[in-house]
Structures are given as C-alpha cells and as structure tokens.
Amino acid sequence: MDFRELRTFCAVAKLGSISAAARALDLGQPAATKHLKKLEEEVGVSLLQRGKRPIQLTTAGTVLLEMAGPLVEGIAALESFRFDVDRSSTVTIASTAVLIAQVLPAPVRSFRQKHLGNLLRLWPRGEADILAMVATGEADLGVVPTADVPVGFDFAPLFTIGRTLVAPKGHPVSDLPEVTFSTLARWPLVMLGVRSRTRRLLDEAFQRRGISYELAVETDSLEAIKQYVAGGEGISILPDISVSPADAAELEVLPLPNLLPEDVVGVVTLRGRPLSQAAQAFIEELGSLRGTLARAG
User: Fold this and answer.
1) Which stretches of the chain drop beneath a pLDDT of 50?
2) Rg (the chain; Cα; Å)
3) Cβ neighbours for 36, distance < 8 A, ≥ 6 positions apart
C-alpha cells in the first residue's frame, strides 16, 4: 500500500471532492483518481460513495480513515517539524486581497514589533486556493471571509463583515427607501471578479430571483472600482470593511444590512497539524480583532 494513495484518500475524505484534493496535493485529477482506484483494489472494497456531493465515505472508508488519518497527519507533522527547523522565522498567511489590505496591517504591525526576527508572507488568494494552501502546508494558516470550511479544518471566528453600496454623488439610488436586487439591476454594475465572495453571493442572489444585470466593469482592484463608480460608470456592492469614511467625500455610501447575510471572518488551520511558535504568536495577534473591528459605511 503506497503512502501517496493513503494521503490522497485522506485529502478526498476531508475536502469532499477529488478535484479539490488534487489541487491541494498539487496532483492532476487523473492521478488522484488513479490513487483512489488502486487503493480500493488493494483493500478489496469501495471506500467512497461517488454519487453524492460532497463525496461521502462508505463504512469501510470510514474505518480506513480512522486508521490511516493519524498516520498521514503524523507524516505531515514530521514534514512541518523539518520545515520549522529550517525556516522557523517565516509565517505564511493566505487570505483575500481585501482582508490583507484592510484588516491585517494592524496585527502584522503588532506582531513585527514583538518578533523582529520573523518574516511574514501574505499571499492574496480566493477562498478555495486559501484552503488548498493550508491543506498542503504551503500556508501556515488562512484568514477567510466565511465559516463554511470543509471537514478537516479548524476555524476560529474573529469578526463579521457585511456589504455596502457605493454610487456616484447624487445618484438616484440614494433616494430609494429600500435597495433590492430588482432596483440594483436598473443601473450598470461595477463588480469585483468572480473569485471574490461578494461577487459570488451577488450572482447567486440574482440568479435565484431570475434577474439579469448589466456588467459595466469587472476588476479585482477595490480602489479601481471606487474610481470607476465616482466617474459614473455604474454602482457597486463592496465588503463594508473596504469602504472608509474618506470615501464618502466622493461617493454615495449606503449600508445594506438586509440585502445579503453577514459573513464570519476567521482563522483557518489544518486540523492535527502542529503550528510553529511564530504562527501561534501571529494567531494571537489576530485575536485582537475579535469584536473590535468597526464596519465602515
């Protein structure tokens, strides 16, 4: 029985998807599928119920996970230990671009003041890529804008974020008693890219209601969105933490407490993987954000 097969099986069990496990392990999906097929041939029973989404384990698969899971995690811990010995001064954090820009500067500054010898690497990624980096050890931890993380990860909540509407000064949307998805669709929209959670939530909400909208500009740059909106290209919906009081000088800024549900931002780590002292220290700094981050707008 090959260790790679067990590692692939455990990753599929945790992430609930062969494609997600393949990405997390930096494998092609055919290779991951081959690992699973070979493992099932070796044990002589089916391990996965492939007809369900997310993928579920059979009874035999559950038993194997209980036996193989600690072994795979133990090997990962040994690899993590070797990494810490070689590069104990580095902490790698994967998060979204908006959180890195708007939320992490304060804990980064506080951490650096206390731990001058440590290097912090901050990589902007989408949610799926953040989880993949944490799963493979490419990142020590992630800061994600949702508590909806797969089994196999630990999630520690920090604070909540909502959404805010921004429009050009004097735009008629600011005179409406209530903003709905139907009223939003009256005007062109300047939107974040499809990998952002805000965009996905908006698209899903429009689709559920059967409402189409005109996409005027699409970009992952929050500052560019504000500039295009101020220039009259359209209106936009942004995470409230990305809109500052200074933006109100050039934009109409309208809170939208009832349009979309709030999201819980938190720290995600891989369950069972030990963290370096430096990574633990940074998580402690992130703890200072709990309940103290005022939402803009």
Assistant:
1) 85-87, 294-297
2) 22
3) 5, 8, 9, 12, 18, 47, 48
Q: Where are the beta strands (DSSP E) in 138-232?
A: 141-144, 153-161, 163-168, 189-191, 215-218
CB atoms inside a 10 Å sphere around CB 113: 9
Identify residue 176 by its one-letter amino acid code.
Answer: L
Strand 163-168 versus strand 251-255 pairing type? antiparallel
The pLDDT tens digits of the residues spanning 50-107 come to 777 788 888 888 888 888 878 777 776 666 555 554 445 789 999 998 899 889 999 9
Identify the residue whose tokens are 């954090």.
93
The residue to which tokens 């992630």 are assigned:
142
Cα–Cα distance between 168 and 12 in angstroms, integer? 47
Q: Judging by beta carbons within 10 Å of its beta carbon (0-12, 13-18, 19+), is residue 282 exposed, middle or buried?
A: buried
Q: What gap in Å lies between CA 295 and CA 297, rounded to an integer?
A: 7
**176-181: which pairs have CB atoms within 8 A and are 24 or more residues apart?**
179/254, 179/256, 179/259, 180/259, 181/205, 181/206, 181/209, 181/211, 181/259
The length of the chain in residues reads: 297
- Cα 257-260-264 angle, rounded to 5 deg: 90
Take residue 126 and report the two structure tokens written for it.
Answer: 């989408």
| DSSP 8-state assignment for residue 277 | H
Which residue carries 């902490």 as its tokens?
91
Q: Which residue has the tokens 């990405």?
A: 23
What is the H or E stretch that residue 238 is in?
strand 236-239
